[in-house]
Design goal:
Order of helices and strands: EHHHEEEE
Number of helices: 3
Helix content: 10-25%
Structural class: alpha+beta
Shape: globular
């Protein structure tokens, strides 16, 4: 069996975090490969966010002031292989949110980039997925790891 383990909300209550630097295209596009025409993920690409997270950290430098850095720094359960989920991974989590428990905020960052200025956010309370401005604190962080 394979799947994802998801952390609790890593961002403080009522506090959002930035994705990264505006105007920099990193190439973190994994997780958008299996979308239907309406933008719904049809297949969860397990591990797609790992490469995205590594690309973001290589560009932004180590730190926890942005989403991927915060996710990668997480050591819950004694594990050090946490990362910021891709679009398809977080979409899959949202689709199964009934089993997760409390969702503390409306939007969470994915590691999937849209363009120079935007990266994807997933709305946990409905079908609100949209590209948010990278340098604006638009969402929270839930780290994942693959098993």
């Amino acid at each position: 069996q394979h799947g994802l383990i998801i952390s609790g909300d890593l961002t403080a209550s009522y506090t959002d975090i930035i994705w990264g630097t505006d105007g920099v295209l990193i190439g973190a596009s994994g997780g958008l490969d299996n979308l239907d025409p309406s933008g719904y993920s049809t297949f969860v690409e397990l591990g797609a966010g790992i490469n995205n997270t590594n690309l973001i950290i290589a560009s932004e430098r180590p730190g926890t002031s942005y989403a991927a850095g915060l996710a990668k720094a997480y050591t819950g359960g004694g594990y050090t292989n946490w990362y910021l989920p891709s679009y398809s991974e977080l979409y899959g989590i949202r689709s199964n949110s009934f089993y997760i428990g409390t969702i503390n905020r409306t939007f969470y960052w994915t590691s999937t980039e849209d363009d120079l200025y935007n990266s994807w956010l997933i709305g946990m309370g409905g079908n609100n997925n949209f590209p948010g401005t990278k340098g604006f604190a638009n969402g929270g962080v839930r780290a994942v790891r693959v098993f």
